[in-house]
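Hi support team,

I submitted a single chain yesterday and got back a structure, but I'm not sure I'm reading the token output correctly. Could someone confirm the output below corresponds to the sequence I sent? I've pasted both exactly as they appear in my results page.

Thanks,
R.
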Amino acid sequence: MGNHRETGFDRKTIKKYIREYEKKELCYWIEPPKYNASNRTKVKLTDEIMDKIDFYLSD
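Hi R., thanks for writing in. Yes, this is the structure output for that exact sequence:
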């Protein structure tokens, strides 16, 4: 099947874009996740929360 015929792009250009995409996908899985944890507050584990956890685990 000729993707280059369907898209109108040269096959070398398509191959280049596929390689770039695969390289970015590989980097995505290798890099650690990035998120901002500085604005999070600590929450104390209370008996009420433990009761809710036990309730949902018992289902």
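A quick pointer for reading it: The longest helix spans residues 11-30. Let us know if anything else looks off.

Best,
Support desk
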